[in-house]
Amino acid sequence: MEIWVNPACSKCRSAVHLLDAEGADYTVRRYLEDPPSADEIGAVLKRLGLEPWDIARTQEPEAKELGLGDWSREPADRDRWIGALAAHPRLIQRPIITADDGTAVVGRSEDAVRDALERGKA
Asked: What proportions of the chain, in percent to the nearest 5, are helix, strand and coil?
């Protein structure tokens, strides 16, 4: 299991705390310091079953500078979105937890983190 975190994010800290409390075996990736490549983002999106615009933080100043809110959300634009997330990792929703069963969740709630833990036990 791996969790992509921004240590300044309270949701990330809560998710890590819960993983620790449950004795989970996981690796922390500080994705702002170690940004995922476009290929890694594409793989995580596949695991999440989501599109890049589903995990984009469109209210961030960087997103507004890029005009992300106005970008098309069509399949033909998927690579453009993934490229933007790779170039601007701050725009990636957090935390993202990759579960041991090959899936992933956006762990913004305790329930989502517990879901990732359960998937690891399956």
From this structure: 50, 15, 35
- pLDDT one-digit tens code per residue, 48-106: 999 999 999 999 999 999 999 999 999 999 999 999 999 999 999 999 999 889 999 99
* Helices 78-87 and 38-48, axial angle in degrees (round to 10): 120
DSSP string, 41-80: HHHHHHHHT--GGGSB-TTSHHHHHHTGGGS--SGGGHHH
Q: Which residues of 16-30 are buried (b: 16+ CB within 10 A; e: fewer)?
A: bebbeeeebebeebe
Hey, which residues are catalytic here? 9
Measured CA to CA, the distance from residue 80 to residue 87 in angstroms comes to 11
User: Residue holding tokens 């209210």?
Assistant: 59
Which residues, in sequence order, are bridge partners of residue 97? 3, 105
The Cα–Cα gap between 73 and 105 comes to: 21
pLDDT at 100: 84
**Among 65, 82, 60, CA closest to 73:** 82
